[in-house]
Every structure is written in C-alpha cells, then in structure tokens.
Specification:
Blueprint (H helix, E strand, L loop, with lengths): L10 H9 L13 H5 L11 H8 L3 H4 L4 H4 L5 H5 L6 H16 L3 H7 L5 H19 L9 H4 L5 H4 L2 H30 L10 H14 L13 H33 L18 H26 L1 H4 L4 H26 L2 H20 L8 H14 L8
C-alpha cells in the first residue's frame, strides 16, 4: 500500500499570493482548461493546473521549487479561457513574487521590496548616499563654491565624480551579487530531484537556453498577450546595452593611464571623458536609453489600456516596470538637457537617473529584476528534465 502523507498548508502562502496579485486563487475548481489552452505547457509537465492546486492547498515548499512556475510567460491565454475567472497567470506571477521573498538573503530585504509601505525608505537610501557624495566629494573652488555651479560647461564629473560613482557601483554590486548568489543557489538546489536522470548537463542546458532567452521565442508563442513582446525586447536589450555602456565608461576612467604605460597614447582620445558623439560608446548608451524609455512606455501604456489582458498587476510588477522606465527616461533627459545647456535640468535628471539605477541594482535580488536569473535557471532545469523538448 502506498504511503500517505498529510498535507500541511501554509496560510502565509495563500495570504501572500492573494496580496501580491493572485486574489482570484480560490475561484479555481480544477477543470484543467488552463493547461489545455497554454501554448507553453507540455504533456510531460503541464501547467498551471497543478500549480493552482498546490497554491490553493498552501504548499509553499513545493511551489517555490517548481520550475514550471517560471515557464509561465504571462501569456494570459489561460485567463482568457478560464470559465471561473480564476486568472491563473496572475496567480503564477504572484507565486514568483513570493519566491523572491522566500529565497532572499537577508530575508528582511525580501519583505521590504514586497511591501509598499517600505518604498519611501528604499528610495531614501540611494538618495541620501548620492546626495552625501555631491555635498562632500564634488570639487569646490578656493572660496568654497561648487565647480559644477560655476563652470561654463555641464560636466557630470564635477557634480558627482565618476570615480566615486564607480566605487559605489562596484562595491555595492559585489555585495549584492554575493547576497543574490545565496538565493539563486537555494533555488537551484531546491529544484534538484534525488535520483532523477537528466538528459543534459547544467552547462549544456544553459547553452541551449540562452539563445531562447535572447530571441524571446516563447513570448511569440503567446496569443492573448503577444503584443507586449516588442516592449519586453526593448527593455531587455536596452538594459544589456546600458550595462555594456557602463562597463565601457568604467574602462575609460582607467584606460588612458595604462595606454601611456604601454606606449599607445595615440588611442587616448577614444577614452577621454566626457564622451561625445560620434563615439560608439555614446551611440550605444543613447540607443540603450531610448530602448529602455520606449520599451517601458509601451508596456506601461498597454497595462493602462488593457489591464485584464496583460495581467501581473501586483505591486512588485508595477514597481519594477516604473523604475526601469524612469532609469531610461531620466538618463535620456540628462543627456538632452546637457546638450541643450540647461544645467539645472541636466544635473537634476542625472541625479534621478543614478537613484533609479542604484535602486534597480542594489535591490535586484529582492525585486522582479531577479526574474531574469530565476527564469534562466528554471528553463535550464526544465530542459535538463526534457520538458521543453517534448512539446505537444
């Protein structure tokens, strides 16, 4: 006779899923329509019917380790055809938001990013740190006046010296990546199944998964929510471009010194700051900023106009979308204002841009920003199990 084990529900899971946007959870009566209409579900690992049942039963430990939760791309085909209006896509989005908090280290940060009441404090931290850098570190004249206020040109290095911004960036990100690695490792270990025979190695599955992520192929397999594909692509590649631009600027700070050491000072003009058009780094940064602002605007406008079709209307979803849009928009505003010679707007926009950037990066492991890594790991694990290659 098979061993039976009693289910121990976790009331906190049900409460949090409802609070994070899955408030229709209890409408599900397990008809299975959601799994049958989902273009991303496979016969070997159908979803989201099972996940809806586990959530309704409060099975938090099984859900946060279930890769299928992350195979959902919020197509909302399931929501469109659900006869009970249960909105399974929103429930799975809420479970993913719950997972950020569950795996977070330190745990109080996960709770803070999931709570609207904590937002003023979360914004206050980067504002105070950056403001202190301006007050104490911005160059001053002999009479105590700040040079950025008296200079004939707008120079962000006089406002917030690049070496200090980069120091904050590097030190902060090293700490955050360590904290993030703890949560990602917990998640990866939780998805492993004792005795399971995998079809691919971890590296092999990643090599097959990364091109899929870069192409956003699965987004195009959606029906109801397919129009958001371009907005998501613009945000994704805008962020990658901004990341490359930031790395190039960091190199530019130190490159001139080392070029002189090896006798290649003829290349020094390529790295002298501030960079101006037509420098390729400047072009990449400008295009990335436009992509972030445009992609974010497209997704926000679509949410405003077709909220029911889009879904994922929880606090964490909106917070991430608005901040990443503001990061792109303020960066572009600072660039345009500098070009136009409007110092107050340029410096104000640049300060707001840095606040948004550090908000995104410093809080990455605890916000929806982390879904890039969680989803990548889940897709890799699903591919190792053969779920993604046995399609209906």
């Amino acid at each position: 006779m098979a061993e039976t084990r009693p289910l121990t529900p976790d009331p906190a899971l049900i409460r949090d899923v409802k609070r994070l946007g899955g408030n229709t959870l209890k409408k599900c009566f397990q008809c299975g329509t959601c799994s049958s209409v989902c273009n991303l579900s496979s016969p070997s690992a159908p979803f989201p019917r099972k996940e809806m049942a586990l959530a309704g039963w409060g099975q938090s430990e099984r859900l946060v380790r279930d890769p299928n939760v992350w195979l959902c791309h919020q197509c909302n085909d399931c929501t469109t055809y659900c006869p009970r209006g249960a909105r399974p896509g929103d429930v799975l989005a809420a479970i993913r938001a719950y997972a950020y908090k569950h795996f977070s280290f330190p745990s109080f940060m996960g709770r803070a990013l999931a709570t609207p009441r904590a937002l003023p404090v979360l914004v206050f931290v980067p504002v105070v740190i950056l403001l202190a850098c301006v007050v104490w570190l911005a160059p001053q004249s002999v009479d105590g006046r700040y040079l950025f206020g008296t200079a004939a040109v707008i120079d962000f290095n006089l406002f917030l010296p690049h070496q200090y911004v980069d120091a904050l960036f590097v030190i902060g990100n090293i700490m955050i990546f360590i904290f993030a690695a703890v949560g990602f490792r917990r998640f990866w270990k939780g998805m492993q199944r004792p005795g399971e025979k995998y079809e691919l190695s971890f590296v092999g599955s990643l090599l097959k998964t990364i091109p899929e992520v870069l192409s956003h192929r699965k987004f195009r397999e959606c029906d109801t929510n397919r129009p958001r594909t371009w907005g998501h692509l613009l945000l994704f590649y805008g962020f990658l471009g901004a990341m490359v631009t930031t790395g190039a600027i960091f190199v530019s700070i130190f490159a001139p010194h080392y070029l002189e050491q090896i006798g290649l000072q003829v290349l020094r003009p390529l790295f002298e700051l501030p960079l101006n058009l037509p420098n390729p780094i400047k072009i990449l940064g400008a295009l990335s900023g436009v992509a972030l602002a445009l992609g974010g605007a497209l997704l926000i406008i679509r949410r405003w106009g077709k909220k029911d079709e889009v879904g994922a209307n929880g606090y964490t979803d909106y917070l991430f979308l608005y901040v990443i849009f503001l990061a792109g928009a303020t960066g572009m505003a600072a660039w345009v204002a500098r070009w136009a010679g409007t110092a107050t707007i340029a410096y104000g926009s640049y300060f707001a841009h840095l606040v948004c950037v550090f908000f995104l990066l410093w809080y990455m492991p605890y916000s929806k920003f982390a879904h890039m890594i969680y989803r990548l790991l889940a897709l890799a694990q699903a591919r190792r199990l053969g779920y993604l290659d046995r399609r209906r």
